[in-house]
C-alpha cells in the first residue's frame, strides 16, 4: 500500500518522512510569540526594566512552554517615546499579527499604543497606566485586560489613610504635571480628599520634564498648606522632592503616588525622601499565601521574593511582581485553551480565580464599571521613615503611624 508524501507530512512523523525521502525531517514544534513592548530606555526605564524582569521570570517558571506550545517572547524597547511605541506596536500587532501583547507600562506611553491595539485587537495586557483615559478608550473592549489599579484607587486609599491619621482636617496643595498622568489624577484628588474632609487651597500645573519647579512652589508656600500632593511621574518626582527639600517648604505631610517606593526615586533624592507617603500593591517584606491550584507558579510571596533577589541581586518592586503575575496568568490561559486562539484564551482568562503573588488573580469589572477585565487593585499606603517603608493603611496591615515632618 503506497502512502502519499503529503499524508506523511501532514502526520508529522519524522520516521515516515525518513522512509519516504531517505532524509531525516523533524516535525516543527508549535510556537506562540508574545509581544513585550517595554520602556527599556528613556525616562520610564525603571518601569520597563521591572516589566521585563517580571515577565521574563514568569516565562522561565513555565520553561517557556504553555501546554504543547513553545513560547517565544518578542521584546521591544519603546524608548519611553510615543513615536517609538507606535512603531513597535505596529510591528508586533499589524506586521507580525501577534495575538498576545503585554505592555507598555507608563501612562503616556500606553496612551500612544491605544490606536494600534484597537486596530489589530490582540489580547492586550496593560500591567501599568493609572490613566482613566485608557479605561474610557478601551475598557469596554473584550480584548483589553488591565492588571494595575486605575488612578481613583490610589486616591481613595490615600485620602482614607490621611482621614484616619488626621481626622479629615487640613489644607491641601497639589502639584500636577501637564501630561496624561497629572491631568488624570487631579480630578480624583479633587473628589476624594474633600469628601474625606480636607480643603484644597492650591493647584499648580507644572510642565513635564521641567528642571525648575520653584515658581510653583513659591505660590504654594504662600498658602501654608498642611499637605502637599505630587501628581507627577518618577523623573519629575525626583525634581519636585529635591526642590521642596532644598527650599525648606515646611509642609508637614508630603504625599506621592507609586514613585515613592521605587529605588530610582529613593536613591536619587536621598534624605529628602523622609516623610513622603506612597501607595502601592506591593512592598518588600509583604507576604501572601501560595496558590492552591498553582503553588509552583505562585508560591508564597516571601519565597518568590527570595528567589527573585537571588536571580537579579535586588529587591523586587511592585512592577516586577505585577508583571510576573500578569504574564503567568496569560501562560495559564494559553495552556488551558490548548489552542492559539485569542478568543478561547480570553475565555480561559476570565475563568481563572486564584491567589497570586500580586493578590487575587481574577478578572472582574473595574470599580468604575468601565473596564470589563480588571485585576489587582488592593492597595496599601506607606510612609518613608528613616529609610524604611512603614505601612499606615489599611489598619489590619499597619505597622506604624503617620509622622508629620518639616520638609
The gyration radius over C-alpha positions equals: 24 Å
**Major sheet:** 7 strands, mixed
Distance between the termini: 89 Å
Structural class: alpha/beta
User: Main sheet: which strands, in order across?
Assistant: 8-7-9-10-11-14-15
The tally of helices reads 14
Helix and strand pattern: HHEHEEHEHEHEHEHEHEHEHEHHHEEEE
DSSP strand count: 15
CATH topology of the largest domain: Rossmann fold
Low-confidence stretches: 1-28
Domain count: 2
Question: Roughly what fraction of the amino acids lie in strands?
Answer: 15-25%
Shape: globular
Q: What percent of the residues sit in helical stretches (DSSP H or I)?
A: 40-55%
Mean pLDDT: 92
How would you name the CATH homologous superfamily of the largest domain? Response regulator
CATH architecture of the largest domain: 3-Layer(aba) Sandwich
Indicate the CATH class of the largest domain: Alpha Beta
Amino acid at each position: 500500500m503506497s502512502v502519499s508524501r503529503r499524508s506523511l507530512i501532514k502526520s508529522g512523523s519524522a520516521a515516515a518522512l525518513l522512509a519516504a525521502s531517505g532524509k531525516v525531517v523533524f516535525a516543527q514544534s508549535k510556537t506562540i510569540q508574545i509581544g513585550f513592548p517595554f520602556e527599556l530606555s528613556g525616562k520610564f526605564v525603571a518601569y520597563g526594566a521591572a516589566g521585563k524582569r517580571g515577565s521574563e521570570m514568569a516565562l522561565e517558571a513555565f520553561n517557556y512552554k504553555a501546554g504543547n506550545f513553545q513560547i517565544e517572547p518578542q521584546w521591544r524597547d519603546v524608548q519611553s517615546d510615543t513615536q517609538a511605541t507606535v512603531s513597535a506596536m505596529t510591528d508586533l500587532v499589524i506586521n507580525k499579527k501577534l495575538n498576545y501583547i503585554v505592555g507598555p507600562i507608563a501612562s503616556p506611553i500606553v496612551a500612544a499604543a491605544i490606536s494600534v491595539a484597537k486596530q489589530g485587537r490582540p489580547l492586550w495586557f496593560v500591567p501599568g497606566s493609572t490613566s482613566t483615559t485608557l479605561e474610557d478608550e478601551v475598557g469596554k473592549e473584550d480584548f483589553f485586560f488591565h492588571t494595575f489599579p486605575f488612578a481613583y484607587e490610589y486616591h481613595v486609599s490615600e485620602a482614607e489613610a490621611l482621614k484616619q491619621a488626621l481626622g479629615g482636617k487640613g489644607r491641601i496643595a497639589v502639584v500636577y504635571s501637564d501630561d496624561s498622568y497629572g491631568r488624570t489624577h487631579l480630578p480624583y484628588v479633587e473628589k476624594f480628599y474633600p469628601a474625606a474632609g480636607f480643603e484644597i487651597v492650591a493647584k499648580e500645573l507644572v510642565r513635564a520634564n521641567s528642571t525648575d519647579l520653584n515658581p510653583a512652589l513659591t505660590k504654594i508656600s504662600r498658602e501654608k498648606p498642611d499637605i502637599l500632593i505630587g501628581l507627577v511621574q518618577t523623573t519629575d518626582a525626583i525634581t519636585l522632592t529635591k526642590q521642596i527639600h532644598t527650599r525648606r517648604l515646611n509642609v508637614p505631610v508630603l504625599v506621592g503616588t507609586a514613585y515613592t517606593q521605587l529605588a530610582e526615586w529613593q536613591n536619587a533624592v536621598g534624605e529628602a525622601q523622609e516623610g513622603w507617603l506612597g501607595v502601592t500593591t506591593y512592598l518588600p517584606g509583604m507576604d501572601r499565601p501560595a496558590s492552591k491550584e498553582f503553588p509552583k507558579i505562585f508560591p508564597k510571596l516571601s519565597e518568590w521574593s527570595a528567589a527573585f533577589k537571588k536571580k537579579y541581586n535586588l529587591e523586587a518592586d511592585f512592577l516586577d511582581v505585577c508583571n510576573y503575575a500578569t504574564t503567568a496568568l496569560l501562560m495559564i490561559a494559553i495552556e488551558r485553551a490548548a489552542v492559539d486562539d485569542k478568543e478561547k484564551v480570553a475565555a480561559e482568562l476570565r475563568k481563572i480565580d486564584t491567589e497570586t503573588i500580586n493578590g487575587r488573580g481574577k478578572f472582574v469589572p473595574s470599580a468604575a464599571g468601565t473596564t470589563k477585565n480588571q485585576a489587582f487593585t488592593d492597595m496599601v499606603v506607606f510612609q518613608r521613615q528613616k529609610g524604611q517603608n512603614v505601612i499606615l493603611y489599611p489598619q489590619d496591615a499597619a505597622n506604624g503611624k503617620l509622622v508629620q515632618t518639616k520638609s
